[in-house]
Amino acid sequence: MRLVLSLFTLLTLQLSATDDITTCKSCHPTIYNEFQTSFHKNSSIKDDKVHAAVWNRHPAKAKGKYKCAKCHTPNNSSHEGITCITCHTITAIENHPKANKNIYESKAKTFYSAEKGMEDKKVIYHEKSSWFGLVKETTGSPYHDIDYTNENFYTGKVCMGCHSHKHNGKGFSVCQTDKAGAESKESNCITCHMPKVKGSATSIRQSKTHAFHGFAGARNQPEMLKKYVEVDFKKELKGFTITVENKAPHNLLTHPLRVVQLKTTLKRAGKTEALKTETFVKVIGTNNKPSMPWLATQVVKDNMIKAKEKRVLSFDKELKSGDEIESILGYYIVNPKAAAKLGLEKEKKLTSFTVLKHSYFKIP
Asked: Does pTM surpass 0.85?
């Protein structure tokens, strides 16, 4: 019995004093495995080559002042990224002009989460014995209490401490996500990027589904986001149009390094002809030229497909019966031009074209 109590005490101390996510694996094995591939887990300069490449060129590096820790390594270490405790202990979000701030729970073993039907409940670990100690019943987790009453976890506002906006030292917004995506309980950051998937959330209490903790996005599981983009075709008298609809409450891609492209080809009588490629970007910089984010003072170019926008693209190629149109909507994680400047041109995962939507249209 003493050994059991000692082990329990050790696990409790781990949860309250460190961000060691291996402790969470004992009860959340499926979620733990998903999280290993996420870019929350791999957000540090040690694990994210894009973040490292940008930071290596930041003037603050020479001074040994890591400026990105608040979101990328919130445990104040440049070697470990975001952990389970990082997100599940956020109590509130403070709004600030330069960047928002996460407020964390100071009480040990208190975690926050969301579950339909539990919005007004707090689950405290409790053990009840009967039949002179022969039968024991428990409720909750022996490692932490769970508070389901924090509305931020239902609307997606919990994400807005890091994903709302970021101003550089010149007062320029280098990155921003529309706040409309963190207001509704029905559709928000969490429902899109953490959709319900098969598998129990915990081994203590079985459930049919759980929120996906690999965090679907441009760099991980992009196929989960396909349902938020539609591509339609319409034949015109002289040519045709392709409409790209962005159903998301923010720009199709929000990071300034990303590039979206629509590649269109025509197949006629066994021959394939490449038509024009449409490119969508948001480029920041200074003096009308692209620059590193800490130097940027202006938007140099922005034709990125906006939130809830239907972008109609016209093609002047006259079509004939039997023609086939193929459209491929996809993106580069790092703009090929920027990749060369950042020394990332040989990183295939970052510079290869990722297909988001593949569509075919045949002319009757």
From this structure: yes
